[in-house]
Amino acid sequence: MRHRRTGRKFGRNPKHQRALLKNLAIALILTERDPEDFDSEKEAPKKAGRIITTLPKAKELRPYIEKLITKAVKAQESIDKAEALACKAERGTEEWKAWRESDEWRAWAQAAAPAVAARRAVYAKLNSREAVALLFDRIAPRYVDRPGGYTRILKLATPRLGDAGKRAIIEFVGEDEYRNTKATSAIPTVE
User: Fold this and answer.
1) How far apart are CA 37 and CA 35, in angstroms?
2) What does the alpha-carbon distance between residue 32 and residue 150 come to, in Å, rounded to a whole number?
């Protein structure tokens, strides 16, 4: 019996399952790169922040990637605090060296510590420096005001050729789609 056993096996052993989720998460995050960063135009995605996979894989990937994004979003507050306390001088200059020895540096280090811990925790899951940098620098700042639900799954009508597996698109929810439509009044006001 499989009582209280969660997760899909995908016909793989546990290490292979974790590797599959890690690779899918990295692939989804790396679609957010600039089009010039891809080796060829053929490799670049048609739309950033979107991959096509099977429906069960997409359903299993969703909580995995959303937990990573939540960690990055929670770290944004400490990143902002650390940026306010950071030294504006070039590294290695006399001004920077004086800042490095001062109490201001200690305050900066203390403010930056939660962000560093969050980056390390996400890196332990993904093992990709490029993906972690994109997640913290480009993806997480978009979702600071959003309480959750960073991805969506769209089922595709056509099955996969070869084995007729159900396909789905998993994508990041766009920043323009998160406007509170209930707050705007449907009745026009006369001024």
Assistant:
1) 5
2) 14
For residue 168, list its beta bridge partners: 53, 155
- At residue 180, the pLDDT reads 47
Please write the tens of the pLDDT for every residue from 89-106: 999 999 999 999 999 999
DSSP assignments along 4-68, one per residue? T--S--TTS-HHHHHHHHHHHHHHHHHTTS-GGGSSSTTTS-SSTTEEEEEHHHHHHHHHHHHHH
Provide the residue type at 96 as one letter: W
Structural tokens at position 34: 């600039």
E runs forming strands in the chain: 50-54, 151-155, 167-172
**Gap between the Cα atoms of 47 and 35, Å rounded:** 10
| Residue 53 structure tokens | 């996979």
Angle between helices 94-101 and 103-126 (to 10 degrees): 90
Mean pLDDT split into 10-residue runs, the chain, 191 residues: 88 94 96 83 83 96 97 96 93 93 94 97 97 96 94 96 95 67 55 62
pLDDT digits (tens, 9 = 90+) for 170-181: 999 985 554 444
